[in-house]
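$ fold --in a.seq
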Amino acid sequence: MTAPLHETSAGESTATVVGAPDAPGTPDTSGTGAKVIQGRSPWQIAWTRLKRDKLALAGAFVVVFLILVAIFAPVIVGLLGHPPEEFHEDQIDPLFGTPIGSWGGISSDFLLGVEPVNGRDVFSRIVYGARISLLVAFLAAVFAVVLGTVLGIIAGYFGGWVDAALSRIMDVMLAFPQLLFTIALVSVLPNQFLGLDGSGVRIAALVLVIGFFGWPYVGRIVRGQTLSLRNREYVEAAQSLGAGRLYILRRELLPNLIAPIMVYATLMIPTNILTEAALSFLGAGVKPPTASWGQMLSTAITTYEADPVFMVIPGLAIFVTVLAFNLFGDGVRDALDPKGSR
């Protein structure tokens, strides 16, 4: 026979089993021969599952490493490279415009070689390019998640004409050609806008456009989850006790939506990285000479036959970054799945 659960602290509970034999080596602190069993919260269970997923942990390690590289880019370049916008014509063959030496001019002074024609340090530009990709991807994901969560939970909870109107807006947004709109918008942007200039204007535009076209995906997921949660017993109990709609949305529904929102946010970031790289490749990204991985790939088109290394390095940076985020996102999804066995 078991005694009822009693609260010990926030988010934890224990159950006292009366008359149960102690496990070997387990100290009896109660003096009655009973054993105390401590419960685990859903987040503790998810963390235990995530620690068992080696691929997810490897992806998380790479993600953290890339974030640190982006944050400390000036320090890293100061120790191991050269300024990203500095030309090194002495490293370029004046006849062919290609780097002197093999493998794109890789040496102890230029760890990843130099760019054809102008001789800029590829290592420095890769490091600074990580800043642009991660900054745009993270900010656009935050913008999309916040907007999609707010509109999705409103559509799912209120239903009726509110749900119908927001759902039709989501359908229109999902059918809109994002790339063409972004290219057209960037082409008419002024060099200075709202206190920003140059690449700052482009970065702000990329964040807003990618995030604005990404919120319907989050909104649909949140709406579907809200539809299944709004008729649960704890929501009806809160309504019967006189709780207002804002309280129910904030205290009853939103905490139960955090898990799917987190999963989709982690899987949205690599998509945003690819979108930013594609826009930079098409000339709608940051302005030169600001470093960007997609821009480096676009520049490499004219020189890949003479210097293929210059195309491989930024392509590999995009591949590794997206793969790491996808592995980590899959691990988070499996860990937060209540039906998962891992």
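$ fold --in b.seq
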Amino acid sequence: MTENPAARHYSEQQAGSLTTGDQLLLPDGERTAEIQHVEFEQDDFGTPAVVLANLTGGGTLRIAAGSTVKILDPTVLVITVQDATLQDATPDAVTQLPVAAQPPAEQPQHTGEGEEAPAAPAVVVPPLPAIPPAASGPSAEELARIPAPQGTPEAVVEAAAEAHPDAVGVLLLADKLAKGINFKSGSCLKDLSDLAHELFITLKDPDGALTVADLLNVLPFDGNPGRWASVEASLALSSFICRQDRQEERAEVYEKLLRLPENQETDPFKARMNAKVRQRSLNEPNLYDKEIFRSIDNSNHEAEREWRLLRLESLLFLRAHGGSETIGVGELQRRINNELEAVRA
């Protein structure tokens, strides 16, 4: 059984979708090589611009991410078989058969002398490019685990202020929100998120914090990263509070809502890039170490606390994602407890 290069079938795809195992048609247009590993180089704006395809046996091809390349299509691969025992066939005649028509690999083939020839190897189909699975949102039954607010949003904020009449931070935020809560306003969402964090972190009132946070937690992602940042912080805080209170099922609902916007991209190349960037941000989070150490060196306790609050938000976000490849859940829990101690001191 021999392979006729002219009978090969190729499919076109974007270079950014190349993956390990693809048989790439080389620039000379005649030879193919298997891709061993794929890497990406970013431009100055942080967008993947160049694909580095490392080839089996050595060598690397640099391809623009948006370029169209050809790969050997295993689903329509056609092979040529030359069998001297076929009737009405000359020694030079060949018959093209699709892969499905090949004899089973375990069936021995016989030569003209009656000796058994080794069975032809099975065709190995390279895997399709990996696309991140679409995130599934919580069902209606799961959403029902989040209690509905008692009264209007303004009434919820007012109740939180009345429960802590001596808390200056709560009163200041409540006064701003008492004028009316507009859920399309980024500043209102930020104030609500800050109020929930203030209730939990400073006043150690997890129930009050959850009640306020739930005003944000049920808001859908509207495509605006600025507004979503406040909802995201609220969801991460709510997940942590519920985990601490053994409300595991309710915590899972918050975590599903938090991850829902992450895999909405339908384009395979962009989805792969988004997943790679997201995983890198989880593996290398900004924990504001330099800023905190600088504040400590300058004996600026107020600035240190502000930076630690930002670090705490980053840790809570990681915890809601179940950790990362570099920081496990156990280590995250320890760091969160340390930061809570530090900012509450």
